[in-house]
Every structure is written in structure tokens, then in C-alpha cells.
Amino acid sequence: MAAKMSVEQPLWSALTAYRVLTMGYALALYVHAYGEYVHPLGAGAYLAVLAVWTLATVRRVSSAERCTFPFLAADLAVAVTGVLLTPVVDTAERIDAGGPTLPTIWTAGAVLGFAVKGGWRWAAGASALVGVANVVAAGGFAQDTVHNVLLVCIASIAIGYVVEVARDSERTLARALRIEAATRERERLARDIHDSVLQVLAMVQRRGAAIGGEAAELGRLAGEQEAALRTLVSSGVAPEVPGPRAGSAPEVSEAGAVAGEPPSGGTCDVRALLSAYAGTRVSFAEPGAPVPLPAGAARELAAAVGAALDNVRKHARGPAGEEAQAWILLEDEPDAVVVTVRDDGPGIPPGRLEDAEAEGRMGVALSIRGRLRDLGGSAELVSVPGQGTEVELRVPKDDQQDDRRDR
Predict the structure, then answer these.
(1) DSSP assignments along 352-365, one per residue
(2) Which residues, in sequence order, are CB contacts of 261 under 8 Å at separation 6+?
(3) Domain range for residue 220?
(4) Where is the Histidine kinase/HSP90-like ATPase domain positioned along the sequence (predicted)?
(5) If pLDDT is split at 50, 70 and 90, which confidence band does 253 have?
(6) Dist. CA 82–CA 104, nearest whole Å
(7) Residue-wise pLDDT tens digits, 144-173
(8) 138 and 24, same structural domain?
(9) Per the structure, how many domains does the chain have?
(10) Greater confidence, 399 or 48?
(11) C-alpha dihedral over 342, 348, 352, 354, to 10 degrees?
(12) Helices 143-195 and 106-118, packing angle to 10 deg
């Protein structure tokens, strides 16, 4: 993300154009009223300096980095000098009649530079200095003089205030984007932990309890570590765990099924990844033609399917207590790739998902819904008690999937 706010650079560009245009305007007024000056050569000398200064400093005013406060002070000095020089080279009649000063409205550009650079307080100070110079040049508080001074003062303070608000908003936005990026990374790490470390610890705990003896003690320790890791995951503090990323390396289930790994770039046929999940209790139906997706999106979709099947294996049981039967249906729609995972288990009781998430069991929240959200897709879960559970995973076909994964 760019460090400078988006509204600032256009303001500097506008100020640069304003200075050049108002310099031309001051020169045109001088040429038009040349014969009315008491000392036309003196006025011409100042305007020549003004023109050279304006053109020579075009690049200095084009960005905040180049337009420093010392430069702005010198710029304001040029403007104030021209205002105070006006009664020396012009007639008292023209000044009393409200005639323009030598730099005319070019002076406002010097004040606006302070507004854009430093905010409304600097703008107020610069406009006050210009106002004093105009009052001295006019010899008093003439109506036209007061009107012009107030106009410059109010405009510069308003612009300075808007700039300060925009800067604050930009900082707030940058902070929010950093928090969002950190949250996404924590969720990714939490998914990796859920799909790898927690699965292994749960398996060790179950096997240790079944074997008994020293293995039971090992299983108990594995259970304690699983509970501690689930607490870290649910609190949003997920540590980096050594080992391969889930979804980027082959996934190994307790039954030994291995999901293949697509290439790191380009596209991948989703059928090749999902077919690895097929087994005695998992049926896979696929289209007859390849179903391509960007490799990163394909890996994440396959990992989400694996997480759904893990839930079936661990939580769904048939009428005789055996593992429930699961079906995977892959569909290639015009605008999306849709995978449906259905089982014939007892279904999920109402409120169970919310309770599991509160306990740190993030299989659905992170490993399934979190992955699909990062892909710009959706994960819909429908469960009817006694009639099984169905999870529909939808990944849009667009070129932004890999970009979403990188953010």
C-alpha cells in the first residue's frame, strides 16, 4: 500500500497549475495597466522575479517531499514582498480604489501551500501574515482589502482542515488493512494447525487410549496438547507450526488416504485432487471433462473437501454404528466450480456448530468456510437431524482468486 494518501497528490498538482496560471494573470494585469504605475520599471522588475521564481520552482511544488517548509517560507516571502512593494510602484488613487497588488491572487498559492503541507494551523498563520501585509499596503482596513483577506484565510483554513481529516482517515484505513491482513494470516495458520497438528494429536489420543499401557499416557499427553492448541486457535493467537502447509502438500487422513498436490502455478484439474478421497465409504462423481481452477484455489478447495470428510469420519455414524457413507459431487458451472459433500449420518444438532467454535474446534469455521471466503466463494451447510449433512462449496471462476489468497 502507498504511504501517501490518495487525495494529497492531486492537491499538489492543482496548486502547481494554480501558481502558473495566476502568475500569467499578474503579468497580464501589469501589461494592461503599464502606463498607470508610478514606477512601471520597478513593478516590471518584481514581476520578472515572480515569473522566474514560479517557473523555476514548479517541480518543488509538485509533491510533498519536495515542497519543504523552508521553501514555503521563501515562497511566502516573495508574495509578501510584492504586496508591500505595491504602494511604492503604484499610485495612491489606484490603491484607494481597490486596485490589485503586484502579485494579485498569486499570493493565495503561497498560503495554500502551507495548508496542504501542514494543515489548518499553518494555513491560519500564513494567511494572517498575508492579511497584515495587505492592510499595511492599503493603508488601512478598506472594504475590498478585508474581503480579500478573509476569503484567502477562510479558504486556506478549510483546505488545511480537510487535508488533516483525510490524513487521519488514511492512517485509520492503513491500520484497518494491517489488522485485516494479520487476521487473515492467523486464520490461515489456524486452518493449517487444525488440518495437520490437531488431527494427528487427536488420532494419537484415540489410539493411545485403545492400546493402553505406556501408549495411554502418550495419548493423554497428546490430548492435553490438543486442548492447549485449540485454545490458542480459538483465541486468535495461532503459532507457526513447523511442517508442510495443509492444502499445499498432500493431506494424510487417519485411514491413509492421500490427496494429490497440484503444481504451484498455472491451473489444475480439480478432478485429480478430489478423486484421491474416493474409497470404500466415499463415492466421487465427476464431469467427463477437466474442471480447471488456478492451482492455489484448487488446493484450498480440495483441503476444504478434506476437512468436510474428516468431520464425516469423526462425527457421523450409520445406524449400526459404522462410519457414515459420504458422496462427493463435482460440478463445473459456467461461472463457478461447485463441490457438494453429503453424508447419511444423523445430522448436526442445532447449535452444535456454535458450541464447537466456542470450544476451539474450527473445522467448519476456518478449514471450510474460512478457505472459501478467502477464495471469494461460499460454503453452505445444511443439516437435518436424522437425514445427514450436506456441504456445498462454491468457488467463482475469475482471475482474482490467487490475488485474494495473497492478501
Answers:
(1) HHHHHHHTT--III
(2) 248, 249, 250, 299
(3) 196-243
(4) 296-399
(5) very low
(6) 9
(7) 667 777 888 888 888 888 888 888 888 888
(8) yes
(9) 3
(10) 48
(11) 30
(12) 30
